[in-house]
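Figure 6 in text form: structure in, sequence out.
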């Protein structure tokens, strides 16, 4: 049967997304257009109505799916890394977006080409014609650089690959004033409902600018994801405000109405990891999470020191130390229902086996091809 998507939460909490006021289909059903639902439509049911789905951890592949068991198998943020993520049945990918000197948006984490391609130089100083043939590389465990057949993706190409399949964590590396052009492209390529636009909101000035962007796009299908670091969060509603540890968090939830909040538990001692999850996983913060029907998203990414963003509980501990329950399982039990990881396939398998992730969504028979 069809699942009717409900608005959940307290007065002032997040209303259902326009998509969720329709009936979003589950496995074997048809969507409102009478067609088999796409994978991303199934994902949106869990995204938009998390209070009905807190038994399921959604997985986002950091820089695409490029790593397995600590080894790089695919180029970062490549066509292959997106296609493999789709085949793996995970919910989302991250796209780091930069621009060439002549304004072409490209998917590239670093500001320079040196680490991930066969070329050198700052991407902002080069025209698209100068970099379009730069080949992506795979860095092996011994440091050898293996040149792949792939070249740098444009944002348009990445949107095309992800369409109907994946949520897109849009990590804008070149300033929020570039978001509107990225959003317009998303609308043109019909992936606007898949966008999670990451906007840092640690300080009053960042929140002011972020709120203005949210207001500008309030009638769109773009979903804004506040990005908050417990080490930098100023707790102040205005420059002269009186400190109230949860008033600002609730102000963000009320104003942005987010489906997900990306949180960080900064840590410097991986040998003695967090035992309580910190600010965002207190009773008060978890109650706000539930009141506003939102996800808390944790990044367990490979880092130096290990677990820097995740309370000392990062992918290194899960994989190299063989302790996935102390990382992905622990953060789920603390209250995270979205995890961005450099080991999405291992996280998927552990979470499914532990009962923290429900049956993987099936791909349509006419799945992605080259």
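Output sequence:
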């Amino acid at each position: 049967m069809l699942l009717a998507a409900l608005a959940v939460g307290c007065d002032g909490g997040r209303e259902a997304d326009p998509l969720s006021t329709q009936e979003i289909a589950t496995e074997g059903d048809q969507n409102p257009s009478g067609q088999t639902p796409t994978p991303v439509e199934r994902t949106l049911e869990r995204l938009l109505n998390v209070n009905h789905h807190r038994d399921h951890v959604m997985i986002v592949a950091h820089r695409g799916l490029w790593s397995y068991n600590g080894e790089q198998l695919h180029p970062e943020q490549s066509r292959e890394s997106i296609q493999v993520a789709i085949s793996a049945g995970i919910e989302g990918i991250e796209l780091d977006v930069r621009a060439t000197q002549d304004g072409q948006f490209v998917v590239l984490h670093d500001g320079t080409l040196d680490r991930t391609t066969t070329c050198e130089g700052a991407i902002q100083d080069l025209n698209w014609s100068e970099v379009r043939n730069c080949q992506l590389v795979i860095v092996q465990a011994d440091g050898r650089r293996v040149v792949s057949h792939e070249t740098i993706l444009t944002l348009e190409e990445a949107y095309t690959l992800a369409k109907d399949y994946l949520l897109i964590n849009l990590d804008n590396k070149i300033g929020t004033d570039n978001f509107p052009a990225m959003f317009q492209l998303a609308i043109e390529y019909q992936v606007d409902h898949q966008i999670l636009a990451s906007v840092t909101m640690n300080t009053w000035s960042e929140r002011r600018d972020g709120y203005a962007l949210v207001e500008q796009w309030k009638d769109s299908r773009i979903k804004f994801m506040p990005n908050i670091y417990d080490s930098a969060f100023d707790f102040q509603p205005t420059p002269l405000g009186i400190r109230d540890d949860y008033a600002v968090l609730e102000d963000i939830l009320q104003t942005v109405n987010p489906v997900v909040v990306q949180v960080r538990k900064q840590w410097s001692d991986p040998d003695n990891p967090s035992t309580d999850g910190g600010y965002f996983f207190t009773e008060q913060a978890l109650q706000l999470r539930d009141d506003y029907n939102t996800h808390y998203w944790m990044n367990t990414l490979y880092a130096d020191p290990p677990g820097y963003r995740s309370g000392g509980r990062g992918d290194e501990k899960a994989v190299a130390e063989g302790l996935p329950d102390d990382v992905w399982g622990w953060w789920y039990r603390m209250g995270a229902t979205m995890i961005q990881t450099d080991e999405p396939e291992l996280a998927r398998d552990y979470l499914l086996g532990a009962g923290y992730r429900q049956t993987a969504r099936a791909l349509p028979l006419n799945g992605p091809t080259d």
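Caption detail: The first strand starts at residue 3 and ends at 4.
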